Amino acid sequence: MDASDRSVFRVLTRALTERMFKHLRKWFVTHVFGRSRQRARLVSKDGRCNIEFGNVDAQSRFIFFVDIWTTVLDLKWRYKMTVFITAFLGSWFLFGLLWYVVAYVHKDLPEFYPPDNRTPCVENINGMTSAFLFSLETQVTIGYGFRFVTEQCATAIFLLIFQSILGVIINSFMCGAILAKISRPKKRAKTITFSKNAVISKRGGKLCLLIRVANLRKSLLIGSHIYGKLLKTTITPEGETIILDQTNINFVVDAGNENLFFISPLTIYHVIDHNSPFFHMAAETLPQQDFELVVFLDGTVESTSATCQVRTSYVPEEVLWGYRFVPIVSKTKEGKYRVDFHNFGKTVEVETPHCAMCLYNEKDARARMKRGYDNPNFVLSEVDETDDTQM
After folding, report:
1. Mean pLDDT of all residues belonging to the chain
2. How many domains would you assign to the chain?
3. Where are the strands (E) in the chain, listed by range?
4. Least confident of 53-67, 76-90, 349-363
5. Which of 80, 151, 156, 353 is the most buried (most CB within 10 A)?
6. CA 309 to CA 351: how far, in whole Å?
7. Quick one: 350 and 209 in the same domain?
8. Max mean pLDDT range (131-140, 232-241, 244-253, 333-342)
9. Cα(368)–Cα(353) distance, rounded to whole angstroms?
10. Residues 259 and 314 reside in one and the same domain
11. CATH code of 143's domain
12. Do 243 and 354 fall within a single domain?
């Protein structure tokens, strides 16, 4: 190996070593320091809002029972099933107790030794167990035919009508709540996924913040609309501290941000211009920023015509400066379009200005040079004019 080959080998070795240490430093910062300081999120990655309400007075809590339908729908499944079972068992037992009271008052029970020719209010009720079984048969309309109401007692007839009507109401409410819980569009939102990280790179000659979103079902979301909110703590000129101050972030795609054709994964982007809150941030200062970017996608489910909203959030550690997403849509030899979700969240490093202000200053300087403005080599010197002609 001659001297030139050894120098090339040293250069390659140095480049590989620097690249390896760069990746190790990035991994160490992400997995060690990133875990040591977990930022508080208002919205989790799967769209849940991490907020709690304290010191709510009793009058405000009573409002939840006034709007009982929404309260039941918002319950978790374990509580909803508890309410479901308690509602039916409680009503069966309560009316069973009432049927027992009717038989006791009318002295139809065996301990009263009624005569054989006496017609009871309800046939074949011999105790609390048989009264409970008759209540169950009445409310769920099983009707075995062994126990039945006679025309002997008007109280029993009224109780039968009342239990039948109340049983229909309970059945309608609880079955409707279960069906509505299953078919809520929130479950459809689970099949809409966002990329784990957001990236900042050049797109169309502009510095942009890009996020990738995909629909995992072949059914579309009609009238989809994407927008964002930047949450951060700000201090007003009057000295007031506003926690979770919201700033609008406009996201667009190449075809516009209204009525998206959401059949394949889309890359939405926010242009970092002079009106953007990211304009004064740089690649070096981004990890030290304290903000949360919440992204919303609203749309109508094609199969049920119900509206749904998908949410996710990004903190500064999840915003990668100087990266872009890997392409994931390709075309097969058979003429079909194929989406490779293996590369959905993958990014590659690209050359990117380290701040938006630098990019725009560079563009302005280039434009001035083309127009010939501010030429430093041009010096204006005064010339004394003399009249060399004489009349």
Report:
1. 81
2. 2
3. 192-194, 198-203, 206-215, 221-235, 241-249, 266-271, 292-301, 307-314, 319-321, 323-325, 329-331, 337-339, 347-349
4. 53-67
5. 156
6. 35
7. yes
8. 131-140
9. 20
10. yes
11. 1.10.287.70
12. yes
CA 120 from centre of chain: 61
Model pLDDT for residues 31-75, shown as the tens digit of each residue: 544 443 456 788 888 888 887 777 777 666 677 778 888 888 888
85 and 113 part of one domain: yes
One domain for residues 138 and 225: no
Of the listed ranges 170-184, 252-266, 283-297, 310-324, the one predicted with least confidence = 252-266
125 vs 190, which has greater pLDDT? 125
Residues 6+ apart with CB under 8 A from 318: 196, 197, 198
CA–chain centroid gap for 42, Å, is 11
Domain assignment present for 27: no
Torsion 34-38-42-43 (CA) sign: positive
Q: Is-contact 122 103, C-beta < 8 A?
A: yes
pLDDT tens-place string over residues 190-213: 788 899 999 999 888 889 999 999
Token pair for 373: 């403005």
Is residue 148 domain-shared with residue 271, that is, in the same domain? no
Question: What's 212-251 look like in SS3?
Answer: EEEECCCCCEEEEEEEEEEEEEEECCCCCEEEEEEEEECC
- Packing angle between helix 77-105 and helix 128-139, nearest 10 degrees? 120
**pTM of the complete model:** 0.67
Quote the tokens at residue 98. Answer: 């009432």
Number of Cβ within a 10 Å radius of residue 379: 6
Domain span at residue 123 reads 60-183
Q: CA angle, 310 as apex, 307 and 314 as ends, to 5°?
A: 160
- Determine the Cα–Cα distance for residues 42 and 313; give it in Å rounded to an integer: 8
The gap from C-alpha 162 to its chain's centroid, in whole angstroms, comes to 44
Per-residue pLDDT, averaged over 258-278, amounts to: 84
Sequence-separated contacts (24+) of 237-241 with Cβ below 8 Å = none
Q: Which of 85-94, 224-233, 334-343 has the highest mean pLDDT?
A: 85-94
Is the domain of 215 the same as that of 360? yes
pLDDT number for residue 34: 46
Cβ-contact 99, 106 below 8 angstroms? no
Same-domain status, 197 and 332: yes
